[in-house]
Amino acid sequence: MNSGTLRTIRTLEDWSRGGSWLHRRDPRFKLLSALLLLAAIALAPARDSRGLLLSSAAAVSILFIASVSAALPPLSILARGWVVLPFTGVFALLAWLEGDPHRAAALLAKSWLSAVAVVLLMAVTPLERLLAGMQSLGVPPLLASVVQFVWRYLHVALDQLRRMQVARLARGGERRFVFAAATVAVLFASSAARAERVHRALLARGGEARFLLLQPLKTRPADLGLLGGALLSAALLMASGGWL
Amino acid sequence: MSHHQPIIEVRDLRYRYEDGTEALKGVDFMLHRGERVALLGANGSGKTTFLLHLNGILRGQGFIEVCGTELAGSNLKWIRRRIGFLFQDPDDQLFLPTVLEDVAFGPLEQGCTAEDATRRAHAALEHVGLSVEAARAPHRLSAGQRQRVALAGILAAEPEILVLDEPTTHLDPPSRGALLTLLAGLPQSLLLATHDVVFAAQLAQRAVFFDRGRIIADGPIDQVVQEFRWT
């Protein structure tokens, strides 16, 4: 699981360093556009299968076109949305067992499409720009710092997890739940110790829990164009779900 | 400040951890401008605890003066600008998404403009031979490269004193050699806590030996190493 997660994170990092028209847009406008799309995906009326199918097809088309315009592999972007399905799948299963297969399908489709929209946002925006955009839009700096630290140290924690798994196997440990639980406990303890060391390093470098930007955010006319496109896309989604 | 005045002076430094462990039991120490001193001693002898007092990360009892100014709660930021601290594990120190941003962190925190911070960061990366990696994420680099980026991060902040805590622990021999060459060419006063005696002997002229929270020897590094058979 961890090597797959690491691979996904690294792929997103590589993609986010591209130079396409979409990559160059102000992260604040990309965030607002993504939020618009997410709202439209969530709210698009899907009273029956046909409505759901039409709005989902419209969303897939929009995300596909956006991926292609950003010089990213659209099928890979669409595929990475599956990551949320194990979670929403549980609720979809419950809905299906309650005799509401339409609601189950809507849950799966909307959660998948939402995840794809977020993946696309991350694939066209380097993390530091995304966080700067979030802060500029009013997200508390502390929250942005937490996201940044989680992203940075996820690699370190997953790498440690991999080493611990190898060591356990080398000692003849089997893949039992009790070993997995112990591994997680040790990982938590060592992460807490690392947090202490990182805080010391932050202090030693004269820093506080805030990060200053090397390249300030700048809005250009094309950014408004992106927002306009997102508005149109959102309207299209709403309309297609309503059979128009 | 003349070359004969100490750049760091510590008198009767004592520290007890929350669990009651007495980590420092009255340490006296002086570092002169341009001097390079190795801190030797067993694990748990107090080397790192001592170093963490120099920039006020740990606060014990006793007198500490850095660059002619007594360390106090009100001047910690000023003191921390004077001391560049290189930690054992570069992953603890590199917390920003790209190498360039991480190296520019110190100058930005000092109030430099973005342009000036970028210029200093590029110069520091050039110094450690990693200019080409500026746009990469720290976790994409090797351990040796990460340690050099961490060093660039402290050099960009232009400190007067370098404090290195076990800097070679995660390094392979070529990376260790590269770090040694880099450090040997730096003009700053240097304090180095390490178990790597060969590395220390190539950098430092003087060594102090820590034992259970006290400095029990202070002199030329060869003598100290020989006295305690620390090889």
Q: How many strand elements of chain A? A: 0
Strand content of chain B: 25-35%
Largest interface: A-B, 31 and 37 residues
Largest sheet of chain B: 6 strands, mixed
Q: Fraction of residues of chain A in helices?
A: over 70%
Total of DSSP H or I helical runs spanning 4+ residues of chain B: 9
Oligomer: heterodimer
CA-to-CA gap between the ends of chain B? 36 Å
Describe the structure.
The complex is a heterodimer of chains A (244) and B (231). Chain A has 244 residues and is an all-alpha fold. Chain A is globular, with a radius of gyration of 21 Å. In chain B, strand 9 and strand 10 form a beta hairpin. Chain B is built from 9 helices and 10 strands. Chain B has 231 residues and is an alpha/beta fold. The radius of gyration of chain B is 17 Å and the shape is globular. In chain B, the strands form 2 sheets. In chain B, strands 6-7-8-3-9-10 form a 6-stranded mixed β-sheet, with helices on both faces. A 4-stranded antiparallel β-sheet of chain B has the order 2-1-4-5, covered by helices on one side. The chains are: A mainly alpha (244), B alpha/beta (231). The interface between A and B is medium-sized, with 31 and 37 residues.
Task: Output the keywords.
heterodimer; A: 244 residues; mainly alpha; 0% strand; B: 231 residues; alpha/beta; six-stranded mixed β-sheet; four-stranded antiparallel β-sheet; 9 helices; globular
Quick take:
In chain A, 75% of the residues lie in helices and 0% in strands. Chain A is mainly α and 244 residues long. The longest helix of chain B is centred in the middle third of the chain and has 14 residues, at 114-127.
Write the layout of secondary structure elements.
The complex is a heterodimer of chains A (244) and B (231).
Chain A: H1 2-16, H2 27-43, H3 49-69, H4 74-79, H5 85-97, H6 101-123, H7 127-136, H8 141-170, H9 177-204, H10 221-241
Helix pairs in contact in A: 2-6, 2-7, 2-10, 3-6, 3-10, 5-6, 7-8, 8-9
Chain B: E1 6-16, E2 22-32, E3 36-41, H1 47-54, E4 61-66, E5 69-70, H2 76-82, E6 83-86, H3 90-93, H4 99-109, H5 114-127, H6 143-156, E7 161-165, H7 173-184, E8 189-193, H8 197-203, E9 206-211, E10 214-220, H9 221-227
Parallel strand pairs in B: 3-8, 3-9, 6-7, 7-8
Antiparallel strand pairs in B: 1-2, 1-4, 4-5, 9-10
Helix pairs in contact in B: 4-5, 4-6, 5-6, 6-7
